[in-house]
Amino acid sequence: MSVEIISIIVLFVCFFGLLMIKVPIAYSIGISTTLSLLLNIDTLPGVTTIAQRMTTGIDSFALLAIPFFILAGEIMKRGGIANRLINFAKSIVSSLPGGLGYVNVVASMFFGAISGSALAAASAIGSIMTDRMEEEGYPREISASINITSSTTGLLIPPSNILIVYALASGGTASVAALFIAGYIPGILLGLAIMGYIAYISIKKDYPRGERTSVVQVWKYFRKAFFSLLLLFIVVGGIVAGVFTATEASVVAVLYAATLALVYGDLKMADFPKVLLASAKTTVVVMFLICTSMAMSWLFSFEGIPEMISSFLLESLNNKYAIFLAINVILLIVGTFMDMTPAVLIFTPIFLPVVTTLGMDPVHFGIVIVLNLCIGICTPPVGTLLFVGSGVAKVSVTQVIRPLLPFLAIMVMVLMMISFIPEISMFLPKFFNL
Length: 434
What we know:
Number of strands: 0
Mean pLDDT: 83
Largest sheet: none
Structural class: mainly alpha
Distance between the termini: 48 Å
């Protein structure tokens, strides 16, 4: 058996073994990659190479957008924006059957899109909506299920940090601007699909409607939420129009969010050290994940794994739709035990050459892989969003699993639509010639 085959076996055995004993995923990736490289010591200076690849992995101007968007999201999370978005959403949809469920979805879509973080949306919206929904007769586990799944829409609707990571992993074949604009329709479609199931269970279980809101009240709440919502148009509109890059847009988002929080009086200058510290902690975690993931991705390329998998899929499955389906199944499984950032960085170089060979646009595949992994973060054993949503709702994960399953089935249905109907993702990028 060749050294290359042994190193690949060591890589996977070590990686999955470390995950099973609950070693944090960034360390699992880094340790298994280093051990595998050490087996190639005759051809590679293993330890030096891993350090070099981790460093060069984050040596990218585009990645500067991530810490700034994280900071903007942290400012918004603490700046009272969630309440304004909830009140505006409530004024629009609360009078419908199961109105507060719709409010949860719409508010999560707004806040997730503005903050660029599903975890921030689940935390901020869930902490407010769960108690309100319980007062109206909604079981807490239902509220948690709605909050968990609807928070993923913010990872598709721009600005989204994970789409920036995918743009990096794609090697420049998919631009951030095209990915951002491509995420709108899939993100809104996912939100509407979740709302459709809420309508079904609300009618079936006779959940109460809210009071009908007058046009005057809707206008009142819209005015209060207007400047928060305006951030979406400033950031994405500026990128699409070519006024600034995604990285420059992230700085604009920070300045805008900070100004808004200070003007509203929700944050004071004395609060900003805590905000900066919290965002710095999150940034360190994300960047360390990117460092180790880029090293493993390079190792896969060095060992020729993408070519091996590509050849296997193309030779064993002679139907492109069967290959697309197989890739979706693999990514759904990967998402259950791996965080989004390393999964995107590791599996994009493996599967992107396969799907592009079969005619799938890299931008389309970016939306597909992100939605796959969105489902993964809602499922055990690693699903971070599942644990955050359950914790915020003050219910156990085991209580949430059963009511969550139909929502996950809805997400898979939307995933299949987006995978096999490329126009859903590609209409807006083609319209704007991106």
